[in-house]
Amino acid sequence: MKRLCTICARGGSKGVKGKNVRMLAGKPLIAHSIEQARASGLFDTLAVSSDSDEILEVARKWECDYLIKRPDELATDQAAKLPVIRHCVAEVERLSEETFDTLVDLDATSPLRTPADIAGAVRLLEESGAGNVLTAMPSRRSPYFNLVEVDANGIVHLSKPLSEAIVRRQDAPKCYDMNASIYVWRRPVLFQSAGLFNADTRLYVMPEERSIDIDSEMDFRFVEHLMISANSEIKSR
Fold first, then answer.
1. Can you tell me whether residue 174 is helix, strand or coil?
2. Can you name the residues that pair with 202 across neighbouring β-strands?
3. 82 and 129 co-located in one domain
4. Percent helix, strand, coil in the chain (nearest 5)?
5. In this structure, are residues 133 and 203 in contact, taking their beta carbons and an 8 Å threshold?
6. Which distant-in-sequence residues (6+ apart) come within 8 Å of 229 by Cβ?
7. 132 with 191: CB under 8 angstroms?
8. Is residue 19 domain-shared with residue 48, that is, in the same domain?
9. Are residues 151 and 129 in the same domain?
10. Domain count, the chain
11. Do 96 and 118 reside in the same domain of the chain?
C-alpha cells in the first residue's frame, strides 16, 4: 500500500495576502502541514504543488520530496480543487515512476489538525472500503432548526423544513460543516470522480477546535493565538 500526501497552495491569496508563507507561531503556515504529514509516519512521498516560486522554495527548505509547479490555468480563483490535486499526483507519479494507492491532500490553511487526525481519516478509508473520505466538524447551526432562507418574495423560511416541526436543535438530524482540512481518496476514485461526493464517500469528524480554516485576517490571528497558548501550556507542564 503506497501513500502519497499532497499539499496544494496557491500564491494569489485574497483574504490574507501571502498567507501560505506567512509566519504563524514561528514557522511558515504551509510548514505546519508539512510537519504534520511527516509526523504521521504514513507517507512514502510528500509533494507540494503551487504556482508560486516562493511557496515552492519554502517547501524545498522543509524537505518535501517533490515540488510541482502548477500551470496557470489551475492557479486562478475559479480553478476547482480536484483538477489541481490530479495534476500534482500525475506529475509525482510521472517523475517517480511509481503509482500510489492512497492519496491524501492536506489543506495548508488548516494547521490545527493533528497527525492523529490524518491517521484516523486514512484508516477510515482503508478499513471501511470507502472510495474517499472528507473531514468535517459538527455544525453549530442546523438547516432543520435555525438556518433560514429568504425567497424571492422576501418570505423567511427554514432552509430544510421537516414534515413535523421540532422545538429543540438536539432533535434535528445531525449536520456537519466541511472543514477543508483532510481529503483522502483511493486512486481510481480520485481520477474518475466528477466531484467530492460519491455513493461511497465517508465523513471523518474532527472537533471544532481543530477545524478552523484560515480565510481572513481574524482567522489567522485566532489560530495563532490558539497555537501559542497550546505551546505555552505544554511548556509549563
1. coil
2. 133
3. yes
4. 40, 25, 40
5. yes
6. none
7. no
8. yes
9. no
10. 2
11. yes
Q: Fill in the amino acid letter for 198.
A: N
pLDDT in tens, 56-100: 999 999 999 999 999 988 888 778 899 999 999 999 999 999 999
Residue with cell 508560486: 52
The residue range of the domain holding 228 is 3-137+175-236
Record the cell numbers describing residue 211, joined without a space.
477545524
Do 100 and 14 have their domain in common?
Answer: yes
Instruction: Indicate if 146 and 185 belong to the same structural domain.
Output: no
pLDDT digits (tens, 9 = 90+) for 130-171: 999 999 999 998 998 888 999 999 999 889 988 888 888 888
List the grid coordinates of 56: 515552492
* Radius of gyration from C-alpha coordinates of the chain: 19
Q: Are residues 114 and 219 in the same domain?
A: yes
User: CA geometry: angle at 1 spanning 198 and 67, to 5°?
Assistant: 80
DSSP assigned state of 40 = H
Q: What are residue 48's DSSP bridge partners?
A: 7, 67
CA separation for the pair 109, 212 (Å, rounded): 8
Q: What is the CATH number of the domain that holds 44?
A: 3.90.550.10
Q: CA–CA separation, 3 vs 131, rounded Å?
A: 15
Round to whole Å and give the CA distance between 144 and 170: 10
**How large is the average pLDDT for residues 22-43?**
97
